[in-house]
Amino acid sequence: MLLRYYRRILDDCEPYLVARPPVLEAMGRAPLGIEIPAANCFDPQKVGSGPFLNLVKTLDEQTYGPLGLSMPSWVFYDCAIMPGAVFGFARRASALEPWVHRSLAVPPGYDGLVPMSLFIAIPLPDRTTWLVYSLCSINQVAAGAAPEGLWRLTLALGTDALGMRELVGTSRWRSPRLGLYAGLGPLDLMTAWTPAHDIPATTTFRVVTDASARDRLLRGDAVGPEGIHRYLDADDFGAMRALQDELEQGLRWAVVGPAEIRGAETRVPLQLRDAPADHPVDDGVGFTRRFQG
Q1: FRET pair for 279, CA 20 to 30 Å: which of 106, 123, 152, 202?
Q2: 146 and 140 in contact (C-beta within 8 Å)?
């Protein structure tokens, strides 16, 4: 079973859920067979959940605040955990080193759960497609505080716990999260240049999150070079705008793997899907070849 490769995480960390009771009742309590203890299910409308929710918000703030994407408490409550849910892994405060306590500002004397990762998502009207609101792990804030692979396992189990069949998300082109999401399968692009976002160099995408996608993510499958038709320079705003033009003209592009780092360049692999047979495809290495389907 694939989860055996993540045993170090499962031995050290406990899964948790944050959701209002009506949402919680519709969710799975044993994603991929991993039981979520009832004591680890938090109702955001109960005062007793406050200390843990403050730490969840702190983890998000420590991750996204330096990017200028801080989330006020009212946004966290009104726009994230009221309509949606949070899944993640946590450890007991007593099991953590003092430097990890400091990184998340764990209150003195607190001995409850401390979030090691979080995956916040909001359901769209069909209830099987969810918009990702946040995804992060303690390792982005305090490197080495949790085992490797925590991001990947949180995403895999989170999509199962939430009953998600399709994920819609946004990501900066330079973000390593984009490659993580692509581990589920091809990310069908909805935007490549997004002026409505605070950071226009943001892509909007959708990806299937069924059982096969989760297995693919946990295995870490890679796309072969034959499936790549272009590389997008993640610092080339002109290329992003050109790709956006192609999307608006009806061409379907997808991100098919993590970015390749070559010196100072971040090259995101793209695949043209359902294109006309005679459509020229630039492979990003200085020549053009025709798409073969």
Answers
A1: 202
A2: no
* Residue 116 DSSP SS3: coil
With beta carbons less than 8 A apart as the criterion, state whether 57 and 73 touch.
Answer: yes
Would you say 223 and 278 are in contact if contact means Cβ atoms under 8 Å apart?
no
CA distances from 291 to 113, 217, 275, 288 (A): 52, 27, 7, 9
Q: Per-residue pLDDT tens for 86-108?
A: 999 999 999 999 999 999 999 99
Low pLDDT (below 70) residues in the chain: 66-69, 224-226, 275-293
Q: What angle do CA 165, 205, 154 make, to 5 degrees?
A: 55
Exposed / middle / buried, residue 68 (Cβ in 10 Å: 0-12, 13-18, 19+) = exposed
- Are the C-beta atoms of residues 244 and 180 closer than 8 Å to each other? no
pLDDT of residue 53: 96
Residue with tokens 């892994």: 89
- Residues in a beta bridge with 202: 172
Residue position matching structure tokens 């995956």: 119
Question: Strand 129-137 and strand 166-172: pairing?
Answer: parallel
- Rounded alpha-carbon distances, angstroms, from residue 118 to 3, 59, 81, 113, 154: 19, 8, 12, 13, 7
At which residue do the structure tokens 């389907």 appear? Answer: 293
Structure tokens at 202: 């943001």
Q: What is the pLDDT of residue 221?
A: 84
Place of tokens 């979080």: 118
